[in-house]
Amino acid sequence: MLNKKSVEDLQVNGKKVLVRVDFNVPLDENKNVTDDNRIVGALPTIKYLVDNNAKVILCSHLGRPKGEFNEKYSLKPVVKRLAELLGKEVKMADDVIGDSAKKLAAELKDGEVLVLENVRFHKEETDNDREFSKELASMADLYVNDAFGTAHRAHASTAGVAEFLPSACGYLIKKEIDIMGKALSNPARPFVTILGGAKVSDKIGVITNLIEKVDALVIGGGMAYTFSKAMGGKIGDSICEDDKLELAKELIKKAEEKGVKLLLPVDNICADAFSNDANILVAAAGEIPDGYQGLDIGEKTIELFENTLKDAKTIIWNGPMGVFEFPNFANGTKAVAKIVADADAVTIIGGGDSAAAVEQLGFADKMTHISTGGGASLEFLEGKVLPGIDVLNDK
Q1: Is 357 helix (H, G, I), strand (E, B) or coil?
Q2: Phi/psi-derived region of residue 244, left when phi > 0, alpha when psi is between -120 and 50, beta in every other case
Q3: Are 306 and 336 a contacting pair, CB within 8 Å?
Q4: What are the pLDDT digits (tens) for 37-78?
Q5: CB neighbour class for 131 (10 Å; exposed up to 12, middle 13-18, buried from 19)
């Protein structure tokens, strides 16, 4: 996946270029885009194509319309925001492979931009239907995938069309695979990964893959209680995957065999209810009383994690340290975000909640890279092949 053609390897002058972007952005009740990060992320590729006289045809999904037209999921508000950001007119088709799309695509002049309607209005998109892919591809001369957030899905617009057109990745995907790829294949050491979030089951593949590569593995968030219980600790009413206790023991053993430092919380901030206003106590790991659940890591744990992270040269972080949506249990995630931001290291934030936390806390500009794809970055870290990148032409 690290040897794919990029948009600069294509001759785009005067050519119609179909670009799969990720414009799956949140809208408010008045259909205004409330977070345009994904649109901004696609701008370098779009601008490069416009500046090099390509005829640009953009396609994306928005939400989950389940294969039928639904005004609620129309890309119209996105097109409005894109035009503002690009500072130029953006045309919009009212269908995907119908008369409107084909007519507007055929009439495009060099440097013009057209957005097709939501590709998920067709169930053929998620089915990766070959005929649908062919119809979509028939409007263009070249294909560029720049939607990292959906690169782990083999859909018509993310993978199928590459069968019919010369293809390459855009700048966003190139950055993702360059930075994350280098971190995984040839990291500056010490290499430390921080994993949080609620469930071990979501991260099994990541832990298994990274135990072979990292010098230290830091585990926080809800998944830490499964490890604590596996080691014979009392976890009160904390979240736990009882069917993963044996696996947790195996992973602890594997880390030991590989000489990987495995850091688990030594103290927890606990509450007597899943609520910001619950009664709080601090308990040592493995000593959480009945009636209480761990909702964040404690001060001693933050200190323990900091001692390992401050010397790291590569850090990958995926998943919060606690229930950071509740202000009283956000301290662990905030502290780790600050430690990572201050580290003299290549720092990579895997998308999803950790990316949201870093943005929210104002540390985004201090990180080397914040991945735009939650599921895609997890699968990348697992060492899986991402179909939306795998299909692109090699250099």
Answers
A1: helix
A2: alpha
A3: no
A4: 899 999 999 999 999 999 999 999 999 999 999 999 999 999
A5: exposed
